[in-house]
Amino acid sequence: MKSHNKVILITGCAGFIGSALAIKFLSNNYKVIGLDNINDYYDIKLKYSRLKNIDEIKSKSGDWKFFKSSIDNIKELDKIFERYKPDIVINLAAQAGVRYSIENPTSYMRSNLEGFFNILEMCKVYDVEHLVYASSSSVYGEKKDFPFNEENILNKPLSFYAATKISNEMMAYSYSNIYKLPITGLRYFTVYGPWGRPDMAPMIFSKNIISKKPIPIFNFGKMSRDFTFINDIVDGTFLCALKSPLSNLKDSNNNFVPNKIFNIGYGRPVDLNYFIELLEDAFSIKAIKEYQPIKPGDVEKTFADTTNLEKWVGYKPKVSIDNGVYLFAKWYKKYLKDLP
Ligand SMILES: NC(=O)c1ccc[n+]([C@@H]2O[C@H](COP(=O)([O-])OP(=O)(O)OC[C@H]3O[C@@H](n4cnc5c(N)ncnc54)[C@H](O)[C@@H]3O)[C@@H](O)[C@H]2O)c1
C-alpha cells in the first residue's frame, strides 16, 4: 500500500479511542505520532497493552512514534511540534469521566482547559492543517429535545467535565475565528467496545456480573444511552480528520470561520436494562441488580442526531447494539483469561 505523506499527531493515544484511532491511521499507511502521559486514573497496564497493540500493527505497516508526555506541558509539546510538524492533530487527551470531576476537578482544569489551550496554541504557531478534538454528549446536560441537534444552545453543564467540554468548543471557535485555524469538534456519545475504559458501565457491569457481585444501576434503572461502538467512532473520526481544509465556511455574518461541531453517536437510545440483558446473555449469567438514585452530574438520556455528520463525510454507524455487546463481551472474556 502506498504510504501517505501526512503526519498525524494523536494525543491520548494510549486511551480507549486514541489507541483504536492510531491503529486505523497506521493500517491506512499514515505516519502517526502518539502522545500520552499514561496517568493512573485507571489501570496503566491496560494503557500499555493498547500501546502494544499499536506496536504490532506498526511492524506490518505505517510509521509510528510514541512520546510519554503531557499536553499541559507546553515546552514538551513545542519540541514535538517543532520536530515532526504534524499536518493533522487529533486531541483526545483529556481527563474523562463525569463522576470523577466531582472528586478531582483540578485534573480536568489541567488537562482539559490548560492542555487544550496549549494544543490550540501549538496548532496556530505550527500552522496545522486541521485540528480535531473530542467533545462529549454530556454538553447537552438536561436537554429534553430529542434527538440532540448541534444547533442547541448549551450553557447549563451539569458537571465540571461537561463545563470543560463546552469551554473547549468556545475556545476552538475563537481560534478558528481569529486565526482562521480549521477545527472540528466531535461530540462522542457513550463509546463502548473492546479495549474500553474500566470506569465505564460496560466494564463495571461485566466485571461484577462475572464475579457474581451486585451491579449498581442508577436512577432506579430509568436511564438510556446512545451507545456507540468503537469502530463507528473511529471511522467517523478518521473521515472527519481527513476532510480537507474547512474552506468556505461562513457564519451568519458572512465571516469565514473554519469551525465545525458534530454529534457522533449510533442515533438510537438504548435502555440500560436492555444493555444489561445483552451482557447477561453474552456471559450466560444473571446480573444481581442494585437500584440506586441518580448520581449528581449524570443525565437520564442521550440521543444523537447524526444527520449533519452523515451529510459532511457520509458517516453511517454500522454496529448494532446486539452485535456490539456480543463483540465487547467476547473480547472481555479473552482479556480476563489473558490477565496475569
Ligand atoms: N469514551 C467515551 O464514551 C467518551 C465520550 C465522550 C467524550 N469522550 C472523550 O474522548 C476522549 C478520549 O476518551 P477515552 O474514552 O479514550 O478516554 P481514555 O481515558 O481512555 O483516554 C484518554 C487518554 O488521555 C491521556 N491523558 C489524560 N490527560 C492527559 C494529558 N494532560 N496529557 C497527555 N495525555 C493525557 C490518558 O492517559 C488516557 O490514556 C476524551 O477527550 C474524552 O473526554 C469519550
How does this structure look, described?
The chain has 340 residues and is α/β, with parallel strands linked by helices. The protein has a domain of 232 residues: NAD(P)-binding Rossmann-like Domain (Rossmann fold, 3-Layer(aba) Sandwich). 42% of the residues lie in helices and 16% in strands. The strands form four sheets. A seven-stranded parallel β-sheet has the order 3-2-1-4-5-6-11, with helices on both faces. The longest helix is centred in the middle third of the chain and has 21 residues. It is globular and about 55 Å long. The model has no long low-confidence stretch (mean pLDDT 94). Nicotinamide-adenine-dinucleotide binds next to helix 1, helix 5 and strand 5. The site of nicotinamide-adenine-dinucleotide (NAD) has 28 residues, from helix 1, helix 5 and strand 5.
Specify the helix fraction band. 40-55%
Which structural class do the helices and strands define? Answer: alpha/beta
Q: Say what the CATH topology of the domain at 7-191 and 228-266 and 303-310 is.
A: Rossmann fold
Element order: H for helix, E for strand: EHEHEHEHHEHEEHEEEHEEHEHH
Q: CATH first level of the domain at 7-191 and 228-266 and 303-310: which class? A: Alpha Beta
What characteristics describe this protein?
binds nicotinamide-adenine-dinucleotide, alpha/beta, 340 residues, two-stranded parallel sheet, Rossmann fold
